Amino acid sequence: MTFNYQRQYRGPLKAILLDWAGTTMDYGCFAPAVVFVEVYKRKGVPITIEQARIPMGAHKRVHIQQIAQLEDVANRWKQVHGRAVSEQDIDDMFKEFIPLQLQCLADYADLIPGTLEAVAAFRKMGLKIGSTTGYTGDMMALLANEAKKRGYVPDSTVCATQVPAGRPEPWMCVQNAMNLKIFPMEALVKVGDTLPDIDEGLNCGMWTIGLAKTGNEMGLTLAQIEALEPDVRQRKLARAYTRMYQTGAHYVVDSIADCLPVLHDINNRLARGERP
Ligand SMILES: [Mg+2]
């Protein structure tokens, strides 16, 4: 008989890579959404906040471009401007987006409940804390400062503007692994509130956890969620779980506060020789 022996990583997780808006701060992921709405309004092509949320997680310029490609937006753009949206239009809107986003970021910088406790527990497990974001370097510098005031300081932060491409490509995760000097990739887990967050982790060969309740998928503040009729809340939440699992998330939980048992489960699976 012929046997083939395969090398397996059986150690524990070594790092967790957290998204920012909708994961550790800005419950409901509002800061970018309201600015995308404003930028399109200024071009005479108003969009809904739901349309603004569809590409969430991407590099912000890519996000503006993807909104323009939505059928309804593309049609109305043609009606208003007499032509399709151009690269120049996207550049103009991104240029307008940057100062508007910088102006309001601090208003949405409060940490999501449970973040500090969760991060402390991750550290107690021996994990390094990395982070990735679709925000630009300037935006992230401002947000990192706000986070620090609130007691949250990750060991590594990588922005979409510091790598060849943002989500869904894996480069921000690769750069975090390098910054933290951690390998193999199956010793890292990615946590985020959008579908591109999950793609990013999967494309990097990492474990992935989707957060269904606190971010872009629900797109509501905690108070708004609590004000929903229970059956409406349940239906919205179930839809978020389904979308994230269909994208390939290994796990989906409500919020960062629910991740700790999942990390222990991943450690058990790694110890048995399982891979993401
Ligand atoms: Mg996010």
Topology at a glance:
Elements (H helix, E strand, L loop, with lengths): L14 E4 L12 H12 L6 H5 L6 H9 L2 H11 L5 H19 L9 H10 L3 E6 L3 H13 L6 E4 L11 H10 L7 E5 L2 H9 L3 E5 L10 H6 L2 H18 L3 E3 L6 H12 L5
Helix pairs in contact: 1-5, 3-5, 5-7
Bound molecules: magnesium ion.
**In which order are the strands of the major sheet placed?**
3-2-1-4-5-6
Task: Assign a percent range to the helix content.
Answer: 40-55%
The small molecules bound here are:
magnesium ion
Averaged pLDDT, please?
Answer: 96
Q: Approximately how much beta-strand content do the residues carry?
A: 5-15%
Number of helices: 12
Descriptive notes:
This protein has 276 residues and is of the alpha/beta class. The protein has two domains: 15-29 and 109-271, HAD superfamily/HAD-like (Rossmann fold, 3-Layer(aba) Sandwich), CATH 3.40.50; 31-107, DNA polymerase, domain 1 (Orthogonal Bundle). 49% of the residues lie in helices and 10% in strands. The chain has a six-stranded parallel β-sheet with strand order 3-2-1-4-5-6, sandwiched between helices. It is globular. Magnesium ion is lined by residues 19, 21-23, 29, 57, 192-194, 215. The site of magnesium ion (MG) has 10 residues, from loops.
